[in-house]
Design brief:
CATH superfamily of the largest domain: Bordetella uptake gene, domain 1
Number of domains: 2
Oligomer: single chain
CATH class of the largest domain: Alpha Beta
CATH topology of the largest domain: D-Maltodextrin-Binding Protein, domain 2
Shape: globular
Structural class: alpha/beta
Radius of gyration: 22 Å
Number of helices: 11
Strand content: 15-25%
CATH architecture of the largest domain: 3-Layer(aba) Sandwich
């Protein structure tokens, strides 16, 4: 037998053994506790959603899934780095909103990981629309009226955000870019203090999720002008979308996803994807998401990759045009 033929047979044998090993790994997975890292403090809306998924995933996989809150860094980068450098075996996963894998790496020079090369997206969980609200003292009942008011009072209208580089911040900058209005950004440390000053009239404009703002709208303390999504929100059925308001580019939903370290076996990724999709499309989860003004976002791992790439392009254009840079 020629040397070339021997080498080919050895390579084929190694490949076969590798495939068998991967398949066996997926069949036995999971065999121990799984850590679902949340790169933010306990107690927030993302924390609640993560714990719900962890509970359902534990039941589905037959192994305990625990939440590990690893707050810190700009936009949740400390927790994300923890997962990026973990063993790619499916036992350390990241539960992430847009910040850690999309916006933070675009804004900050060194987050300690590459959001594309260091992660293997597993599944998206849900998306929740952002709504544009104003303090009732603002004489605007539509987006066009708000823009006209801001242009008539340059530098006198301000919009709040939960922090530098957050999605509400980027939506505010997109609003400025799309309209040319001179609106001042006022960042806060979270949505709660931003809302406090909005209700007090210290700032006039704010983007945040329907769930967070709904009680204050129902109480008449805030006026909703538009839903930053492709469809109206059932909770705000009479409020038009930004597209209906004449601003089709001004869209941004708060979404969550699960990712694993790059190099995690594809069979393990697919097993997790199937389990998560089954959870998010269940009747119980549908009812839970409805109460949160959210909807399930189901897809394959390839769909998640494409979605995150599109989000990165979209917000990258805003960050570049608005010259948003972090330290």
């Amino acid at each position: 037998m020629s040397t070339k033929r021997v080498i080919l047979r050895v390579v084929a044998a190694i490949s076969f053994v590798s495939l068998v090993a991967v398949s066996a790994s997926a069949q036995s997975y999971p065999s121990r506790l799984i850590r679902l890292v949340l790169p933010f403090p306990a107690g927030g809306p993302t924390d609640g959603a993560a714990r719900l998924i962890a509970e359902k995933l534990s039941a589905s996989l037959g192994q305990t899934v625990v939440i590990e809150n690893r707050a810190g860094g700009a936009g949740g980068t400390v927790g994300a780095k923890t997962v990026a450098t973990a063993d790619p075996d499916g036992y350390t996963l990241l539960f992430t909103p847009p910040g850690p894998l999309v916006t933070a790496p675009l804004i900050y020079k060194n987050v300690g990981y590459d959001p594309v090369k260091d992660f293997a997206p597993v599944a998206t969980i849900f998306s929740s629309p952002q709504v544009l609200v104003v303090n009732p003292a603002v004489s605007a009942s539509s987006m066009r009226e708000l823009v006209a008011h801001a242009k008539a009072n340059p530098g006198k209208v301000s919009y709040a955000s939960p922090g530098f580089g957050t999605q509400p911040h980027l939506l505010g900058e997109m609003l400025k870019l799309e309209t040319g209005a001179d609106i001042v950004h006022v960042p806060f440390r979270g949505s709660a203090p931003a809302l406090t000053d909005l209700l007090a009239g210290q700032v006039q404009v704010f983007f945040d999720t329907v769930t967070f703002l709904l009680p204050h709208v129902e109480a008449g303390k805030l006026r909703p002008l538009a839903i930053a999504d492709v469809t109206r929100s059932p909770q705000f059925a009479s409020v038009p979308t930004t597209t209906e308001s004449g601003f089709p580019k001004l869209q941004g939903t708060y979404w969550t996803a699960v990712a694993a370290p790059a190099g995690t076996p594809p069979d393990v990724i697919n097993k997790l994807n199937a389990a998560i999709n089954a959870i998010t499309t269940s009747k119980e989860m549908e009812e839970t998401l409805s109460r949160l003004s959210a909807k399930a976002k189901v897809g394959s791992p390839a769909d998640v990759v494409a979605f995150m790439a599109a989000e990165t392009r979209k917000w990258g254009e805003v960050i570049s045009a608005a010259n948003i840079k972090g330290d």
